[in-house]
Description:
The complex is a heterodimer of chains A (80) and B (158). Chain A is α+β, with helices and mostly antiparallel strands. Chain A contains two helices and four strands, in the order βαβαββ. Chain B contains six helices and four strands; from the N terminus they run βαβαααβααβ. Chain B has helices at 16-31, 58-66, 84-95, 101-110, 119-124, 142-150; strands spanning 6-11, 36-40, 114-117, 152-157. At the A-B interface, α1 and α2 of A face α1 of B.
Amino acid sequence: MPQEIKADVKLNLEGLLCPIPVVKVSQAIKNLPVGGVLEATATDPGVLADIPAWAKSTGNEVLSIERQSKVITFFIKKVK
Amino acid sequence: MEKNDGVTIIVFSGDMDKVMAAFNIAIGAAAAGKETNLFFTFWGVKAIQKGNLTGQGLFGRMMGLLNRGGINRIGPSRFNFGGIGRWMFKQLMKAHNITPLEELRQTAIDLGVKLLPCEMSMEVMEIKRENLIDEVEDSCGVATMLEKAFHSKATLFI
């Protein structure tokens, strides 16, 4: 897992529950150019499954998704 | 429309929990870039009503009185206990930071989810276009709903 990923935009989704994290991620990705990277933190354990699933159905790439105690940090690269 | 991978959800139920599930799924689909349609029929129409009194004839007005209030007055499918359950659910949702139903509906609208009211249900329950929230599409029937379903990869009945 690459430790040094540079994010173009950061999103704080802590405290938000399904389906809001996916909504905010999709909106943030929409505003990024292709190749742009989004970094986000969340506390809803559902994102561990939902973010990769969302990326799969939209054709974007999850560069990393990691959980440290309560906070989940993930990076998504806009592919198209 | 011609991408044939949309999501169509028939919202038949007017129960809080089921309407919540419908909006949640619709929001998820729209956030994944899918063309999403919600078709509100029978009790489901309540989820897109403004909440004012409806009906013209005696039975229509009785129905309107019994079914009054908009999306904030719908109760859960179980444990409603004449409204106490609804209140309890709202408290629980607030405590767990769950988005309230009305906000969920607004999020769906903002994401471009189309809200289709069923003409026949409106006719039967004497609900007029002006009784529905402004954001809904023109009322339609089963043919329109099916046409959307034919272009969808997932069609759900809630």
